[in-house]
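Quick one: structure tokens for this chain, please?
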Amino acid sequence: MRRILQLAAIGTAAGAFSGLFGVGGGTVIVPLLIFWLGYGDREATGTSMAAIAVIAAIAVAFQAAYGNVDAGKAALVGVPAIAGAFAGTALQQRLPERMISLLFGLLLVGIAIELIVP
């Protein structure tokens, strides 16, 4: 029961971050699954991606209701992202998990610096 509550808490946090900032999956779910529940990097990433599909569908519906969705531009970003998802997944399977963690950490640090430094 505790694990179910932890997963629900992670999902709630991811949904809140998703709705507020447009991020939630990779930046919230993956680290919490790894550090709080002891998932491996690949399992955390895969689980996060499955959760993101659900989160994104709901978030898009709500954002569309507010008139914030430009379907044409979303397609221009989303369709090529499919190829990126295939490539990224294939690359992830070939990299050591430690390398994945380091690269992910560097990405988050880089994003933090970009947000803080004008």
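The helical segments are 2-21, 25-35, 41-65, 71-94, 97-116.
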